[in-house]
Amino acid sequence: MNPKSLFWLKHFRTAGGISHKKLKTKQKHTQTRGSKMSNNEEMLMELKKIRELLEKPPAPAPPKGLWNEFKDFLSKYKIFGLAVAFVLGLYIGQLVQALVTDLLLPAIGLIIPGMNNLSTFMSGPFSVGHFLAALITFVIVALIVFIAVKVVKRWGIE
Q1: pLDDT single digits (tens) 116-155
Q2: Which of 31, 61, 97, 108 has the fewest CB atoms within 10 Å, counting from its CB?
């Protein structure tokens, strides 16, 4: 018998006697309460297991040494990706600029009567053709970057 059952047994004996039936009922009630306690303990154990699984593991120790710190810096801040994007952006910009000044503006100049090459067009002291080339280059590069970002997001790359 557990201590609670003994308490009830002593309590009822001192209160003027206890029937066998009442004692059995009290024992069943105590056993039911005990099984509830074991169920609660089981639930607590399961919750502890779930918490352990959901908690993030501790952060790894920072790397030792200059070379390891440098590699950690490169991977943490994605420097290589930034460098590649910068270099590609420069060359894409040059490519688009050549496309605009050497192909598109001369083609537009041929379409408009009286102009041979729109990229060399000048209005007084102002070089309007150079500005048009820069403007069209900017619009095309912005469109290429927009499309590249959309494709990369669709691929799921951050």
Answers
A1: 777 677 778 877 788 888 888 888 888 888 888 888 788 7
A2: 61
Query: Which of 156, 155, 141 shows the shortest CA–CA distance to 85?
Result: 141
Q: 36 and 85: one domain?
A: no
Same domain, 12 and 70: no
- Range of 46's domain? 3-54
pLDDT of residue 114: 72
- Structure confidence at residue 37 (pLDDT): 63
Domain membership flag for residue 59: no
pLDDT given at position 6 = 52
Phi/psi for 115 (5° steps) reads -125, 125
pLDDT at residue 23 above 50?
no
Closest CA to 4 of 24, 39, 33: 33
Question: What's the pLDDT score for residue 41?
Answer: 86
pLDDT score recorded for residue 71:
79
| Count of domains observed in the chain | 2
CA distance 90 to 110: 29
91 found inside a domain: yes
**One-letter amino acid for residue 78 of the chain:** K
